[in-house]
Amino acid sequence: MFFLRLIIRNAFRHKLRTILTIVGVAVAVLAFGLLRTLVDLWYAGVEASSASRLVTRNAISLVFPLPISYKDRIRQVPGVKGVSWGNWFGGIYKEEKNFFPSFAVEPKEYLAMYPEYVIPDDQRSAFLLDRRGCVVGRKTAERFGWKIGDAVTLRGTIFPGQWEFVIRAIYRGAKKNTDETQLFFHWDYLNETVKKTIPRRADQAGFYLVELKKPEQAAEVSLAVDALFKNSLAETLTETEKAFQLSFVSMTEAIMVAIQIVSYVVIVIIMVVAANTMAMTARERIAEYATLKTLGFGARHIGGVIFGESLVISLAGGVTGILLTFPAAHWIETALSQFFPVFTVARLTIWFDLAAALTVGVIAGIFPTWRGATIRIADGLRRIG
């Protein structure tokens, strides 16, 4: 207990320097935590993927559609439980900045495949019965102040024109990492309008979603589906939902690696700053350490005090940084929801933050500890006066 009090008193003997060091560590840990959460966000779609769902798309590129007639043939493949389909719509609400994910989907089986979208039964029924109805995520509804029954007009980017919808349902995510910013509407509504305006683009789906009876049949069913359309004008590529999401992540992998490197560089920089602070502290107290040795304190006690002081400062900064991470993440998720629909700090990130702060304390304290523990009494006392 005596040594703990001594460590804490020593840590705050030079209050301004200690507080500035704690603030520096806190900012570094805050930046580290937010950058790691950003990386986690990139993989949120992968983590939310279901092993029982497959995605079938055009083998050349996702840009090219598939004939709608494929759905009946896919449904006949052994091991397939259900089939839905859809198109990326890419609608904009009033201004370019009001962009959010929007899809035209076959609604009944699509919603059945995604239990993570929680919709009240009455709203679900109203949506299924209304051809112009749409389902919107909670965050998007709150962002624009939309309510059930509101009429909404989106400007199509892939399918030009002004598209009118009626909000029939608002979904909530069953999990924290469920995206609550999307909008879904009836694929039939899209197709019927396209038939009148751009007939050559009608009766085509951007992708098929295949639900499996058993997840372990994924490889077998994927091969069977692709074999059905081999040598056709529109060959397919079927893969698990997780592999489909990873294909998007891989396009930006270099950016993710760069962000991870930056997060580690931030920790290294603050480690150097903290090491410099502790070295200055130890140098200023050499005479004190020599005096303590003359009073009978051993190298182990003096080294423990110096090392403990380094840990107290770095952990104080680390805990402060962790406490600041949550309101900062909440602000990002709220104010920048169009870019970061899910920005939840994971428990593993907190452990990484603590490990980073602890590493800073340990590395920064090694040299001063060695210096203080090995100082000779004569050399230390020579500095007095």
UniProtKB/TrEMBL annotation:
Q: Where the protein is mainly located, per its record?
A: membrane
Identify the residues that the record assigns to the MacB-like periplasmic core domain, covering every copy: 18-227
Q: Name one GO molecular function term.
A: ATP binding
Q: Where is the ABC3 transporter permease C-terminal domain?
A: 261-373
InterPro entries, alphabetized: ABC-4/HrtB_transporter, ABC3_permease_C, MacB_PCD
So where does this one cross the membrane? 20-43, 254-275, 302-328, 348-367
What are the alphabetically sorted keywords of the record? Answer: ATP-binding, Cell membrane, Membrane, Nucleotide-binding, Transmembrane, Transmembrane helix
What Pfam families does the database record attribute to this sequence?
FtsX, MacB_PCD
Entry GO terms, CC: plasma membrane
Give the bilayer topology: Multi-pass membrane protein
UniProt subcellular location: Cell membrane
Judging by the UniProt lineage, the source's domain of life is: Bacteria
Please give the name of this protein: ABC transporter ATP-binding protein
Q: Which organism is it from?
A: Geobacter pickeringii
